[in-house]
């Protein structure tokens, strides 16, 4: 396997015990990451102390405000680029525990894939019972040609159109070329928008041999009674369809239809439709009223180091 510089990025928020497991999992990899970046999203527990104890050589960035997964991953990716000069950036949440061969399998797929346009690979995500997690099912690429699908199948992978931030890895030069996650999304659809933006111009793979355990409280999808967070699902989808270059015009038609079907399913299965109706109304209003703010505006004054902020402020090349 060719030598590649891989930086792991973990976004942490008030899950110190799980964070300890994640960091231990990174340390136990058969192919250990070359560096680790942890973004502490203003945790009120001692997550930062856990990082200093378990991973004392990690780059720790402590923010003064919670910027959500979107802001945390934007900062973490920028820190990886600013301080470690990686070839690939491997991202995960603080409840995502990688099995020992997870990174090895991702890198094997990178080297085995017969195509120079590969820019993202993702792990198979399971719950604590070993079943595939319904929250993190990768979206197969329905527009992939026969050659792309065949290249993926030849290495026991699947061609995908988007990936989850629950263990996915991105080529650093693709991040530089197409930009970082959009911090204003805060959470929900930030990984869909970001990965789909990169994969509109390159190939992506889901790699079943790379396994991580997503230790959520429940074995359920995000569309099961999301409560007030449904507002963010709606607002961010509107932003995605209005303002993002992630999808082609034809894809937008398909994904808009799919979103309405998903929202209908969410309403039908909900025990709190009043909250969902409010979230739908507010999310539509916010999504149509403005577009996402630049990362430099969202992340100003929250403790992002100057060298990292300078990378975030660069225009995509």
Please characterize this protein's 3D structure.
This protein is α/β, with parallel strands linked by helices and 317 residues long. The protein has one domain (6-312): Alpha-Beta Complex (Spore Coat Polysaccharide Biosynthesis Protein SpsA, Chain A), CATH 3.90.550.10. It is 43% helix and 18% strand. It is built from twelve helices and ten strands. It has helices at 16-27, 47-54, 68-84, 102-112, 146-154, 172-178, 190-199, 230-243, 249-269, 273-289, 295-298, 306-312, and strands at 6-12, 35-40, 59-62, 88-93, 96-98, 118-126, 139-140, 158-162, 168-171, 203-214. Strands 1, 2, 3, 4, 5, 6, 7, 8, 9 and 10 form a ten-stranded mixed β-sheet that branches. Helix 1 (16-27) packs parallel to helix 2 (47-54). The longest helix has 21 residues, at 249-269. The radius of gyration is 19 Å and the shape is globular.
Q: Tags for this entry?
A:
317 residues, alpha/beta, Spore Coat Polysaccharide Biosynthesis Protein SpsA, Chain A, 12 helices, transferase, Glyco_trans_2-like, glycosyltransferase, Glycosyltransferase
How do the strands and helices of this protein lay out in sequence?
Blueprint: E1 6-12, H1 16-27, E2 35-40, H2 47-54, E3 59-62, H3 68-84, E4 88-93, E5 96-98, H4 102-112, E6 118-126, E7 139-140, H5 146-154, E8 158-162, E9 168-171, H6 172-178, H7 190-199, E10 203-214, H8 230-243, H9 249-269, H10 273-289, H11 295-298, H12 306-312
Parallel strand pairs: 1-2, 1-4, 2-3, 6-10
Antiparallel strand pairs: 4-9, 5-10, 6-9, 7-8, 8-10
Helix pairs in contact: 1-2, 3-12, 8-10
Family: Belongs to the glycosyltransferase 2 family.
Domain Glycosyltransferase 2-like: 9-138
Pathway: Cell wall biogenesis; cell wall polysaccharide biosynthesis
